[in-house]
């Protein structure tokens, strides 16, 4: 009886912690994202499957892992020249660790005339936390650049690389 009660308490605590972290992450994202800039969520497969994926993290982060077929455009070194081959009416999904840097790049793309630009909700951290695959230069990997130890708390799955 005591073991069953202990297991029940442990299960409830785990569920509560999982919910609390997800609530905390959602609150963080709400504070980072502008209400008027569109996001795309994982269940919006039609957009994700037809979009060009642009990784707006730094090169070191991209080289650890990225979404399949993503094109690296960077953040500090971003230039519109890196996207000059893209059609302005083609759907584009930008992403970074959580979505702050990618939103900035997304705004630059919109200002340059790109019509369908979306920010990946929750960034690569949310992507990996939802068991979606990431790739290095050769194959699928579990490694994810966590940006920093303080930002790495939001990455619950995968192997953190700093």
UniProtKB/TrEMBL annotation:
Annotated keywords: Signal
Give the signal peptide, or none.
1-20
State what protein this is by name: Rhodanese domain-containing protein
Gene3D superfamilies, sorted:
Rhodanese-like domain
- Give yes or no: UniProt keyword Signal: yes
Which top-level group of life is the source organism from?
Bacteria
Record bears the keyword Zinc: no
Q: Which Pfam families match?
A: Rhodanese
Query: Which CDD domains does the protein's record reference?
Result: RHOD
What sequence ranges are listed for the domain Rhodanese? 47-136
Show the SMART domains listed in the entry. RHOD
């Amino acid at each position: 009886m005591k073991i069953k009660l202990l297991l029940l308490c442990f299960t409830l605590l785990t569920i509560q912690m999982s919910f609390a972290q997800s609530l905390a992450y959602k609150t963080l994202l709400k504070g980072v994202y502008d209400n008027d800039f569109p996001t795309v969520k994982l269940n919006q497969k039609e957009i994700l499957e037809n979009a060009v994926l642009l990784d707006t993290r730094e090169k070191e982060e991209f080289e650890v892992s990225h979404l399949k077929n993503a094109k690296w455009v960077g953040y500090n070194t971003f230039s519109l020249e890196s996207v000059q081959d893209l059609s302005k009416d083609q759907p584009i999904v930008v992403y970074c660790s959580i979505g702050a840097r990618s939103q900035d790049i997304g705004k630059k793309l919109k200002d340059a005339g790109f019509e369908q630009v979306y920010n990946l909700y929750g960034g690569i951290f949310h992507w990996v936390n939802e068991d979606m695959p990431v790739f290095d230069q050769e194959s699928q990997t579990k490694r994810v650049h966590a940006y920093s130890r303080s930002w790495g708390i939001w990455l619950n799955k995968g192997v953190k690389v700093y």
